């Protein structure tokens, strides 16, 4: 039975790499996939991984209709054995419904990849719809780590290293960007406390915070806390 699978995780946990691996393994066996993405950091019509691999993809912009596009492709004699959709958090709920229809009516596997929550730990509408409709939600096994060594479960947006909690939901960017606006993955505890690597480092170095209250010691950067 074809499936709609949502591969989900924080930023930088290997989602795009897995998408490229699925594509590689299937095309090596003679299958032909259709790859879609939206607002990849590498630019329009690209699916890129931080490991350096990149492939061409169809840009699924606002208003793009996955079902109509694939029906048009197939009815012109084109081939499609499976579908990959990266950066699926940016898709509209209606577009996720179209992907579910691709599975049910065109009988194609659809593999969607995306982050579940935004920098305020609120669901992206596209990810919410994927959780509602997917046959399976798979959490990626390679764990991105918070600066404290715990598994990172949340995405923080930073401005000059400081975490912010207000702003537009969508701002394309990267981790370790060094830019004005960047992202950092954190465990829930440090996301709740708005404690990034930079603020934790600054707190550890500041003479103002000495002597250290016992309850704050656990927030100090260590190899593993
Ligand atoms: N220089 C490197 N050497 C080995 N692995 C790396 C390197 N740079 C990035 N990675 C791996 O790539 C992962 C990010 O992959 P990517 O597919 O771009 O993530 P996502 O799409 O989830 O944001 C990192 O978690 C890490 O495991
Ligand atoms: C948390 C968060 C992220 N984004 C953007 C930043 C990146 O361009 C993508 C995630 O890409 P990745 O391949 O998973 O690293 O999403 C955003 O727009 N808003 C956010 O809140």
Brief synopsis:
This protein has helices at residues 15-28, 66-75, 93-106, 125-133, 188-192, 197-205; strands at residues 4-9, 33-37, 46-48, 54-56, 58-59, 82-85, 109-115, 136-139, 154-159, 162-164, 181-186.
Note down, in words, how this protein is organized.
This protein is an alpha/beta fold. The protein has 2 domains: 4-139, P-loop containing nucleotide triphosphate hydrolases (Rossmann fold, 3-Layer(aba) Sandwich), CATH 3.40.50.300; 154-219, no CATH class. Helix content is 27%, strand content 22%. The chain contains 6 helices and 11 strands. The chain has helices spanning 15-28, 66-75, 93-106, 125-133, 188-192, 197-205, and strands at 4-9, 33-37, 46-48, 54-56, 58-59, 82-85, 109-115, 136-139, 154-159, 162-164, 181-186. Strands 5-2-6-7-1-8 form a 6-stranded parallel β-sheet, with helices on both faces. Strand 9 and strand 10 (162-164) form a beta hairpin. Helix 3 (93-106) packs parallel to helix 4 (125-133). The protein is elongated and about 70 Å long. The termini are far apart. The mean pLDDT is 92. Ligand LXEULUCI binds at residues 11-12, 15-16, 41, 115, 118-119, 155, 157, 169-173, 183.
What CATH calls the topology of the largest domain is Rossmann fold
Proportion in helices: 25-40%
How far apart lie the N and C ends?
A: 44 Å
Unreliable stretches covering 5 or more consecutive residues = none
**What is the C-alpha radius of gyration, as a whole number of Å?**
20 Å
* Ligands and ions found: adenosine-5'-diphosphate, ligand LXEULUCI
The CATH fourth-level homologous superfamily of the largest domain: P-loop containing nucleotide triphosphate hydrolases
Q: What class would the helix/strand composition place it in?
A: alpha/beta
CATH C-level label of the largest domain? Alpha Beta
Strand content: 15-25%
What is the topology, as strand order, of the major beta sheet?
Answer: 5-2-6-7-1-8
Reported for the largest beta sheet, the result is:
6 strands, parallel
> What count of structural domains?
2
Can you count the beta strands? Answer: 11
CATH architecture of the largest domain: 3-Layer(aba) Sandwich
Mean pLDDT: 92
Number of alpha- plus pi-helical segments: 6
